[in-house]
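Reproducibility note. Readers wishing to regenerate the assembly model reported in the main text can use the exact inputs given here. Chain order matters: entities are listed in the order in which they were concatenated for prediction.
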Amino acid sequence: MSAEGCAIVTGAARGIGAAIATALAADGRPVLVNYRSDADGAAELVERIEVAGGRAVARGADVTDPEQVDELFGAAEAELGPVAVLVNNAGLRADGLAPQLGADEWSSVLETNLSAAFHTTRRALRPMLRARFGRIVNVASIVGLRANAGQANYAASKAGLVGLTKTVAVEVARRGITVNAVAPGLVETRLTEGIGNGLVDSIPARRVGTAAEVAACVRFLASEEAAYVTGSVLTVDGGLSA
Amino acid sequence: MPTQVTTESVETVITDGLVEIGAERDAISRGATFEDLDVDSLDLVELAQIVEDEFGVELDGDSVKDVKTVGDVVDLVVARGS
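Running the prediction on these inputs yields the following structure tokens for the assembly.
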């Protein structure tokens, strides 16, 4: 088993992705910070990681495109070594009640939140199979486990991500590869701006979560110590779904 | 640089690959089936990766679906790589 290698975090320029990249780098893993449009945010993150003594490179790629995914992995392998950890974090939301959701809002959310994770997982797995080691962590959402009106597309994508997580976990478990998901509740990021008002009272912890609290869970699932945890969904929601 | 594809080089890489995956070296022959060797579908995915790393020849899911014996895979790689 070889646990050596780098981590790729998709959608890592800001928010939860940036916190995950920071946490993995703090564990000594070289990190490829993937972004789609926020090159400045990614560059600032790389600088912060390097100042803290870690190693990181930023690379733009639209992970909904399998060719760009292949190039992204090629760049990571060339610059940072084999990819031992993949964190599928890239996500977007385009809310609306189902009767009013446009076809574009449906497909763009499904492409980014679900299909992209399949493309990256498929690319990551074959070298991981040979290495007899791999950690894949998908950033799902409690909305994939319980209803939230106005997010049919987002909920379907995150529920799909849970199905992908469990199925792939079972397929590759005997090769030392684990596949897990974290399911954050309400976490303070730009993605959740405007949806927190009034909801806090229904969260048992009576507060929103932080990106760092989600990242700490990903860091554990990505560690060598978590070798016997696979196919699981770890909710990080202050008790909201309990 | 990928290794040159010849019947001999492919047989060597596939035999070593199957041993890496866990097959008994003495049991490997052209006529041996993957069932005999206890090589399952996930093992075949790994074998495809070994072939790609060594020869730069890509074997997708469709192409390995019907292979039954070691000889089938050797012939497939030789055909794809030359």
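We highlight two features of this model. Chain B has one domain: 7-81. Chain B has a mean pLDDT of 92.
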